[in-house]
Amino acid sequence: MEYNVHTLPNGIRLLHVPAASAISHACIIVNTGSRDEPEGKAGLAHFIEHLIFKRTEKRNTNQILNHLESVGADLNAYTTKEYTCVHASFLNPYLARTLDLFNDILFHSTFPEEEMDKEKSVILDEISSYLDQPEEAINDDFEDMLFAGHALGNNILGTTESVQHFTREDVMNFRKANYRTNEIVVAVLGNYTLNQVVNKGSKYFADVEENNPKKVRVKPTILPPSNNTIYKPIMQSHCILGTQAYSTHQSQKVPLMLLNNYFGGNGMSSVLNLQIRERYGIAYTIESNFSPLSDTGIFSVYFGTDKEKQAKALSLIFKEIKKLRDRPLNDLQLQKAKNKFIGQIALGEENRIGLIISMAKSLIDHNQIESLETVFEKINAVTTRQMIEVTNEILNIEQLSVFTFCPIAE
Fold first, then answer.
1. How many angstroms separate the CA atoms of 244 and 286, rounded?
2. Which of 79, 118, 348, 401 is deepest in the core (most CB within 10 A)?
3. Distance (Å, whole) CA 266 – CA 300
4. CATH code, domain carrying 56
5. Do residues 67 and 137 both lie within one domain?
């Protein structure tokens, strides 16, 4: 897909992706997330993401929320371990209105104490709600075990204790240390010329004060595998097994993405879904996932099942892993896996808001955006030998950690 990049004097990059549609999509992404929080301040990046919608120098909460919704646009935001993102979908005439709001909430929020107190209560409710969903909460507990002692193990929402003790000084210090203008991308996908995007982007972001403190991220160490079980008042067992994997900068990322998709990724025809759900009827949800980060990655397999079927499900997963290691994919199987993965990626291009966010992240991570053709070439270039090497390294049963939520015995 065609795109253009324009860098403002303060380092903020404007990404322009032309698209012939009446609907436009835009996002502003900051390369900072929960892993950048100081010790004892878990949840601070997410807390700030909430607060930017509360009050700015010229707008109150209602004015912020109605600025785009009043013209039918959709506005939202999220925080991950490495990013903070605000995004919007809107009719083409409202580009200036959208970029104006992005600028206002990201760079002119006032963070009043009374709003901080209210939002702490909201987030504490969010944490309670999240903990009531074991299929979600187990991911964070697993990652806390996988990255024990490292900020990557922190729950993005934080903890009840950490959220209660946030101060306005914490907020201001985190923003100053982590909202680096040279690691901020404003991306626009829509029926605009490059000049239109550059002119509007410059109007709203060129005057942002340059801020480029040194970025310090400590790579996590790889810990010995663990096997932990927590007993909870739940109906089902929930289990995750996995390990640290490749970063977004490692070439092995591509064959692992392909392996993950074949083994337990999207679609009903994955190995795990066919064997554990369809053949044995043991689990309603079973899937694998690979999440590459800037200096490491996470490969995991999740399933939920009845307590008495948990051991059987785990045994079957290990059996399928052993089969993959003992009998690698032949050329025909590998080509089928490539065709499926390439088709899914191509279909994913139809999700335009997801596409522009993905392109903005790629610009931050790699300082470039690969075309679909290049992505497909890399997938098609994966060899049987590479698949064997990645399978042997990542799907090593002796190196997989296991984390389980188990129902309390009646």
1. 19
2. 79
3. 14
4. 3.30.830.10
5. yes
Q: Say whether both 308 and 188 belong to one domain.
A: no
* Overall domain count for the chain: 2
Domain that holds residue 289: 227-407
Specify if 212 maps to a domain.
no
Percent pLDDT > 70 in the chain is 100
In a domain, 138, yes or no: yes
Q: How open is the CA angle 153-155-156, to the nearest 5 degrees?
A: 115
Tell me which residue has tokens 């389980």: 404
How are beta strands 13-18 and 184-190 bridged, if at all? parallel
Q: What is the pLDDT of residue 410?
A: 60
pLDDT tens digits along 113-146: 999 999 999 999 999 998 889 999 999 999 999 9
Euclidean distance between CA atoms 108 and 176, whole angstroms: 13
DSSP state of 372: H
For 22-66, the three-class secondary structure string (H helix, E strand, C coil) is CEEEEEEEECCCHHHCCCCCCCHHHHHHHHCCCCECCCCHHHHHH
Model pTM greater than 0.85?
yes
